[in-house]
Design brief:
Length: 116
């Protein structure tokens, strides 16, 4: 909830509040909003701070399955610190750029073209 409020405030400062929607949902509850297809950005746990990255594989797999089955035509971006977690989604990612510093960690934005 604190991260959601901060993201909403950042969007307001950037003048994009009318084009953004921030939510914290269970993956099973994700559904596309009404209107044109767009971009889903997910920032799931990385496992670096809580440890046990391998325990997150089912979460990333469920995220990928949900996005592939419900978000046809949408582009996806997933922020994570590990290649193995990104690949666990099964999403057709484009080539990535170099990792960037984020909260003391190195993270990468993995992106797709519109999903089939």
């Amino acid at each position: 909830p604190g991260a959601i409020r901060m993201s909403e405030a950042n969007a307001a400062r950037a003048g994009v509040s009318d084009f953004t929607d921030f939510k914290c949902n269970a993956i099973s509850e994700l559904v596309p909003p009404e209107g044109p297809k767009g971009l889903v950005i997910a920032n799931p746990p990385y496992g670096d701070r809580i440890g046990e990255k391998h325990n997150l594989t089912p979460l990333y797999r469920a995220l990928g399955q949900t996005l592939k089955s419900r978000f046809s035509g949408w582009r996806v971006g997933v922020i994570t610190s590990g290649n193995e977690l990104a690949h666990a989604t099964g999403l057709p990612f484009l080539a990535t750029t170099a990792p960037v510093a984020h909260g003391g960690l190195r993270v990468t934005l993995w992106q797709t073209e519109p999903l089939p």
